């Protein structure tokens, strides 16, 4: 399966649009934090739902967690279809919208949670609904940016012939969207959705039980169940939660994503020869069912009806040179200027006015520590998984078994496993700075593994014959053949793993076991601390600096590496 | 030339195990001898096992029975004196021309200075001077294959194996490379002593080889050996060259021994529902029938003529011609193709009539099509699962071949409107989709 490129069209390291985008995003976060602070006080009497550690309640908790997940997914889809379409269709808007998306991708997902938590609670005071909103919003933030990016890239790469065909039939924009643009973008979108589920599960679990300042609300769900189990030091209950989550993810994979992936295969424009079409037993079942067939026929005629309802475009062809209206340009510039000014004002009020240089440097130092951790972990994971991935990828039979397992493991929310590790650290009094670190990469290392497997399995047979024929073996084989061949795939995997590890840092650097707190030094622990204390100034400072680091690492390290690998090492 | 042969194959056989069935036989009774100074061509259609034999010789796969000896020693694994040139060039895109060429020497752990000297010499010999630091993606197809040649020659092999080395190139480039290669060979400037060339291009075989082994399929075996004694350099327009090409066409369309003069269907031994069918589109079938029916051929054509007329190589032409023969639309024999009465009628009809004729022939002469139609007719629902037929076919062939055979019958049946298939549900049916 072809994965969308992580960086799309952004080739240059940074443009002024990126700077603007960064300001807008951080300004937005500062604004939300400010609003939240104002609405803080009246929320203390929220009812706390009593939670039970009895495993019999787990199916219900799992159902509620899953519901949140799908609500977030639905929102992300809505956002994708509108935001990405707008960015792709309007040249003016796209210039800012695309960099904003890129910056949003780099903001730690946990940051959205800590900043918006209180804000969402204020929407429905006195009820759990507001917290539900916050939880769903976190899921949204873990998926929407990826999905929107993928759809935007698809929209920008529709073959010119297909667009011309649509134009020659004078399809209305509505029809063109549903008959051409959405189907064309669907395979990549579904694949991306499946891949971003992992972040979704991770943060739905994290968001169900969180305290911001004095406000602690527990949402019934697998995440809060495990939080309670940690507080009560109940290892057995943790085992139950892990088993439940395992089943939930397996069901989602088999009942939803496999059928979807098999179904969207028909929307692929170019079929790569020799690549087997994905199959799904659920899809075959659905297709054979008459009920489902009747339902799809009805749905289809409904779609056709909406197409008729919308006017076709005028017969006149679009003028070759787009008319540029000066007044509109001016309006656009004015709106932009206002936006930037507003963002800058919020940033100034929130950060600059209250931050001493000393504090900022301290936070940057913590960020350096976390960065060191991420890079060391990525390097260690690469040392382990690259040779294994190559070995597996060269053996199609083994790869067929291992590949889905690796993808499954990537989706598993590893924060469920944290208590086990923390229990070990507490019991044996291990160094938290060292032993908490692997938690950051526990869930994201699989991206390296399955990308490398995909890369190794795509080495053409004749190239393997060449190495056998000229008896290239040992270190020479790794250096000249295997490593270069998997490099583009490895970089794609490492980028995802690195981003995921930064995200996980907030949860992984600070952990509890009963009353015992285990803490590693780093930016993640700083943000987690600030969140618990409800100190919005420090939250925004931490998130701002983390975003800055992630963006800088992406632009200065991963992106050049990615384009170099693509250009030099991609086998075509 | 009475010294011992460079290479001998004795009764070589290759079969692959197939789950729940007998093994899949690819090659049988291969006997071959390569002597110093010879170019031996392996000529046949795809699926005749010629490429498999080349891989066995290269030590990239092991024969199931029989023995391959190189310089008197049995081949087990890639031998140092045998180098190979590949159809797809198989260059490493991240290595420069120089690094690609040097790879084989690096594997031998030679001193750096020697690697450098020999690589540059090979690059020079093959006409790549000036391209040393280029990456393969910067080169044209012809230049890339030159790198493939240099990479093979630099290890100073005794035997050069070439697997359709010119078939991925355009006509003009391929011809230039062939002549360059033959010049170097004639002048003895290459370090090689013998060549085995796999090809499906008859003229290429006659142009380059001293001996040609004709391969038949199912299972792959050697049909006959032809010695080419024309002096080099050879001229394609030379009448004796044309005669040789014609003779090979005749041999390749000859009926199997023992069935000579028999009924037509004996050309397909044991044709039942278990026969593997090639995927040939109905457009190609009607196209060839039209071409043969039209002047100047008027219903009967010489295969070499029609091949050059339609610019088709035997790999493309033979499956079409044989499918026509199977459907009783044409007879193929003695290097000629001749339309039957129905074949001519088809060529001169309009679309609806064509479909009627095609349906009649398909259901009568392709047992699998008749079988599927009978099953559908007999059932009350007039529908049946595809997996049912795949299971039946897998008694005779591999899963992959079963899938391909079913797809072939399906595409003909769709054209003939004999039955329909829904890919979403995997069901064959008699209804046409609404």
Short description, anyone?
The complex is a heterodimer of chains A (572) and B (434). Chain A is mainly α and 572 residues long.
Strand order of the largest sheet of chain B: 6-7-8-3-9-10
Q: Class of the largest domain in chain B in CATH?
A: Alpha Beta
Give me the CATH fold name of the largest domain in chain B. Answer: Rossmann fold
How large is the share of residues in beta strands of chain A?
under 5%
Overall average residue pLDDT of chain B = 86
Q: Which percent range fits the helix content of chain B?
A: 40-55%
Furnish the topology, listing elements before pairings.
The complex is a heterodimer of chains A (572) and B (434).
Chain A lengths: L15 H23 L19 H32 L1 H16 L2 H15 L5 H28 L3 H9 L4 H35 L1 E4 L2 E4 L3 H10 L3 H30 L16 H8 L1 H20 L16 H27 L4 H37 L2 H16 L6 H11 L3 H4 L2 H5 L2 H13 L3 H9 L4 H35 L1 E4 L2 E4 L3 H11 L2 H34 L3
Antiparallel strand pairs in A: 1-2, 3-4
Chain B lengths: L6 E10 L7 E11 L4 E5 L6 H9 L6 E6 L2 E2 L7 E4 L11 H11 L4 H14 L15 H13 L5 E5 L7 H16 L7 E6 L2 H7 L2 E6 L4 E7 L11 H14 L29 H12 L6 E3 H8 L3 H13 L3 E4 L2 E4 L1 H7 L3 H15 L1 H12 L4 E3 H8 L5 H18 L3 E3 L4 E3 L5
Parallel strand pairs in B: 3-8, 3-9, 6-7, 7-8
Antiparallel strand pairs in B: 1-2, 1-4, 4-5, 9-10, 11-13, 12-13, 14-16, 15-16
How is this structure best described in words?
The complex is a heterodimer of chains A (572) and B (434). Chain A is mainly alpha-helical. Chain A folds into 2 domains: 56-268, MetI-like fold (Orthogonal Bundle); 357-572, MetI-like (MetI-like fold), CATH 1.10.3720. Chain A is built from 22 helices and 4 strands. Chain A has helices spanning 16-38, 58-89, 91-106, 109-123, 129-156, 160-168, 173-207, 222-231, 235-264, 281-288, 290-309, 326-352, 357-393, 396-411, 418-428, 432-435, 438-442, 445-457, 461-469, 474-508, 523-533, 536-569, and strands at 209-212, 215-218, 510-513, 516-519. In chain A, the strands form 2 sheets. A two-stranded antiparallel sheet of chain A has the order 1-2. In chain A, strands 3-4 form a two-stranded antiparallel sheet. Chain B has 434 residues and is an alpha/beta fold. Chain B has 3 domains: 7-252, Rossmann fold (3-Layer(aba) Sandwich), CATH 3.40.50.300; 276-347, Winged helix-like DNA-binding domain superfamily/Winged helix DNA-binding domain (Arc Repressor Mutant, subunit A); 351-429, no CATH class. Helices cover 41% and strands 19% of the residues of chain B. Chain B contains 15 helices and 16 strands. In chain B, strand 15 and strand 16 (427-429) form a beta hairpin. At the A-B interface, helix 10, helix 19 and helix 20 of A face strand 6 and helix 2 of B.
């Amino acid at each position: 399966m072809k994965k969308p490129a992580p960086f799309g069209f952004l080739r240059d390291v940074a443009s002024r649009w990126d700077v603007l985008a960064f300001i807008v995003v951080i300004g937005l976060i500062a604004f939300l934090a400010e609003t939240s602070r104002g609405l803080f006080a009246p929320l203390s009497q929220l009812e706390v739902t009593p939670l039970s550690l009895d495993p019999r309640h787990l199916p219900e908790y799992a159902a509620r967690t899953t519901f949140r997940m799908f609500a977030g997914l639905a929102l992300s889809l809505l956002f994708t279809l509108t935001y990405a379409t707008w960015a792709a269709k309007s040249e003016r808007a796209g210039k800012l919208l695309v960099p904003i998306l890129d910056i949003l991708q780099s903001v730690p997902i946990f940051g959205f949670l800590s900043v918006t938590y209180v804000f969402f609670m204020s929407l429905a005071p006195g009820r759990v609904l507001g917290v539900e909103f916050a939880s769903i919003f976190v899921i949204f933030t873990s998926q929407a940016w990826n999905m929107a990016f993928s759809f935007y890239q698809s929209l920008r790469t529709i073959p010119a012939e297909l667009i011309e065909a649509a134009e020659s039939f004078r399809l209305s924009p509505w029809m063109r969207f549903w008959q051409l643009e959405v189907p064309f973008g669907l395979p990549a979108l579904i694949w991306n959705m499946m891949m971003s589920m992992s972040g979704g599960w991770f943060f739905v679990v994290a968001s169900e039980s969180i305290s911001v300042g004095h406000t602690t609300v527990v949402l019934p769900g697998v995440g809060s169940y495990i939080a309670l189990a940690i507080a009560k030091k109940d290892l057995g209950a943790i085992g139950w939660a892990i088993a439940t989550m395992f089943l939930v993810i397996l069901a989602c994979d088999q009942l939803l994503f496999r059928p979807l992936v098999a179904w969207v295969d028909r929307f692929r424009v170019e079929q790569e020869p020799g690549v087997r079409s994905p199959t799904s037993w659920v899809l075959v079942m659905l297709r054979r069912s008459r009920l489902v067939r009747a339902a799809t026929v009805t749905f289809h005629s409904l779609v056709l009806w909406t197409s008729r309802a919308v006017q076709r475009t005028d017969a006149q062809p679009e003028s070759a040179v787009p008319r540029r209206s000066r007044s509109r340009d001016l309006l656009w510039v004015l709106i932009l200027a206002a936006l930037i000014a507003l963002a800058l004002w919020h940033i100034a009020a929130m950060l600059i006015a209250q931050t001493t240089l000393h504090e900022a440097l301290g936070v940057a130092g913590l960020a350096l520590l976390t960065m060191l951790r991420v890079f060391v972990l990525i390097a260690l994971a690469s040392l382990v998984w690259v040779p294994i991935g190559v070995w597996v990828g060269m053996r199609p039979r083994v790869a067929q078994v291992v590949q889905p397992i690796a993808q499954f493991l990537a989706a598993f929310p590893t924060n469920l496993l944290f208590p086990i590790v923390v229990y070990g650290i507490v019991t044996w009094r291990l160094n938290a700075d060292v032993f908490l670190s692997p938690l950051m990469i526990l869930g994201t290392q699989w991206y390296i593994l399955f990308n490398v497997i995909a890369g190794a399995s795509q080495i053409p047979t004749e190239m393997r014959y060449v190495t056998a024929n000229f008896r290239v073996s040992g270190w020479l084989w790794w250096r000249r053949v295997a490593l270069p061949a998997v490099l583009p795939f490895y970089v794609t995997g490492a980028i995802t793993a690195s981003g995921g590890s930064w995200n996980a840092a907030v949860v992984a650097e600070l952990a509890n076991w009963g009353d015992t707190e285990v803490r590693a030094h780093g930016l993640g622990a700083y943000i987690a601390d600030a969140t618990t204390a409800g100190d919005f100034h420090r939250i925004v400072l931490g998130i701002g600096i983390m975003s800055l680091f992630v963006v800088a690492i992406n632009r200065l390290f991963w992106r050049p590496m990615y384009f170099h690998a693509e250009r030099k090492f991609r086998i075509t | 030339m009475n010294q011992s042969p460079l290479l001998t194959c004795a009764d070589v056989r290759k079969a692959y195990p197939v789950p729940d069935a007998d093994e899949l036989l690819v090659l049988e009774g291969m006997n071959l001898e390569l002597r110093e100074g010879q170019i031996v061509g392996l000529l046949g259609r795809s699926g005749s096992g010629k490429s498999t034999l080349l891989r066995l010789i290269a030590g990239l796969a092991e024969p199931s029975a029989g023995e391959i000896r190189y310089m008197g020693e049995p081949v087990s694994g890639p031998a140092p004196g045998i180098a190979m040139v590949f159809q797809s060039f198989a260059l490493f895109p991240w290595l420069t021309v120089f690094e690609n060429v040097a790879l084989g020497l690096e594997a031998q752990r030679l001193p750096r200075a020697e690697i450098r000297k020999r690589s540059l010499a090979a690059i020079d010999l093959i006409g790549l001077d000036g391209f040393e630091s280029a990456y393969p993606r910067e080169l044209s197809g012809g230049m890339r294959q030159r790198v493939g040649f240099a990479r093979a020659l630099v290890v100073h092999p005794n035997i050069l194996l070439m697997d359709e080395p010119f078939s991925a190139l355009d006509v003009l480039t391929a011809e230039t490379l062939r002549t360059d290669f033959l010049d170097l060979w004639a002048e003895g400037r290459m370090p090689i002593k013998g060549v085995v060339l796999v090809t499906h291009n008859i003229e290429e075989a006659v142009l380059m080889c001293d001996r040609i082994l004709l391969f038949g399929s199912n299972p792959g075996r050697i049909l006959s050996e032809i010695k080419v004694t024309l002096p080099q350099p050879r001229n394609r327009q030379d009448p004796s060259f044309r005669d040789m090409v014609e003779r090979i066409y005749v041999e390749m369309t000859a009926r199997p021994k023992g069935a000579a003069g028999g009924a037509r269907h004996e050309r397909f031994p044991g044709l039942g529902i278990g026969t593997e069918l090639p995927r040939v589109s109905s457009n190609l079938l009607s196209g060839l029938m039209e071409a043969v029916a039209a002047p100047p051929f008027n219903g009967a054509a010489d295969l070499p003529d029609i091949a050059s007329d339609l610019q088709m190589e035997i790999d493309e032409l033979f499956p079409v011609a044989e499918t026509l023969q199977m459907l009783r639309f044409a007879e193929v024999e003695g290097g000629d193709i001749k339309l039957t009465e129905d074949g001519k009628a088809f060529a001169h009809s309009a679309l609806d009539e064509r479909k009627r004729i095609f349906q009649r022939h398909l259901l009568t002469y392709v047992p699998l099509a008749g079988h599927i139609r009978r099953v559908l007719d007999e059932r009350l629902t007039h529908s049946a699962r595809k997996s049912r037929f795949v299971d039946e076919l897998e008694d005779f062939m591999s899963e992959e071949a079963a899938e391909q055979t079913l797809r072939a019958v399906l595409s003909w049946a769709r054209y003939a409107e004999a039955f329909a298939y829904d890919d979403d549900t995997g069901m064959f049916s008699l209804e046409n989709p609404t």
